[in-house]
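SAMPLE LOG
Freezer: B-3
Tube label: C17
Construct: single chain, 390 aa
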Amino acid sequence: MATTVQLPDADGGLSGFTLAAAPAPAGPGGAPRNRIAYAAAHVVADPRADADPWLDCPIDWDRTLAFREHLWSHGFGVAEAMDTAQRGMGLDWPTSLELIERSLELARGSDRLIACGAGTDHLAPGPDVGIDAIIAAYEMQCEAVEKAGGRVILMASRALAAAASGPADYERVYARVLGGLERPAILHWLGEMFDPALAGYWGAADHDAAMEVCLGVLAANAAKVDGIKISLLSADKEIRMRRRLPDGVRMYTGDDFNYPDLIAGDEHGHSDALLGIFDPIAAPAARALDALARGDRAGYDDAFAPTVPLSRHVFRAPTRFYKTGVVFLAYLAGHQDHFTMIGGQESTRSTLHLADILRLGSDAGLFADPEAVAARAAPVFAARGVEIRS
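STRUCTURE (predicted):
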């Protein structure tokens, strides 16, 4: 049943918008999926904890783990403790490790796919932080992930970006860290649009020059690499890199702007996926991937097409604040009972931005119960001085 609300518009007024009901849940896909697809999952804060919101990271473990069950139920792997979970923007390493351990325990003994972020975020960048300290920091986190039974996603390091004098330092760090792993890892090249502190990663400000360094690292360590996720929001750069990967190394798209075409691929190959947008759009994304597995390209395109404007809005610049939209959508969909984030990150997007998320989320078919969505949205907008219901 449709529900009409009054939402802020770009002219500074309010305009009516009718929230539409999502399609009925799809049945089993009917064919094994032909793409690996991880959803980078958010965390649910505990707003009732006696904690300092900008300093501490209290987690509602029940809701956080239930959301992982939701993603697995749609056939996705979980990319745990990544930037979508606010690594570097509220989630510290001790809490990240607890999250990793809890999620791995939940997945143990099943065929649920999970990989876990390891980085250097417990090591603050600074003039006294050298390459040896960065290697040791990476190794500590990687050992913790593997001890818990997890596959490593080797995250980009702010400390390395600050300390490296050129490509040779990246080559040294990655060779040493990858060489010590028990299982091949997924590397993550996170662009500066997601984290300004990572500008110049791989020792080059130009992405094409940086790609050459990264490809060299992959070739030198191919036996220790399952794949690489690149998050540069450029389909052209991803395709060019994908065509040059060493044999056996996968491309996991991290492009939240262009994922449908990149996953579908071309005559030269395709990208698998490790995406933050799969967190809020799990249901339509599952329909799309199931259609692709059946050879139904039209069904694939139809399922994904309305999600792209939403994703481009959620990940618009400043892109690092995309987590706010992800969590707002989880709240609207009933996966959590509040719109509070660790680090106070619910404040990073404007009221108009949230109103457009509501509009685009409806257009993307995310809301099974429009009346419930309107009821959840109303107090969020009321706290910002806007009454959306008469």
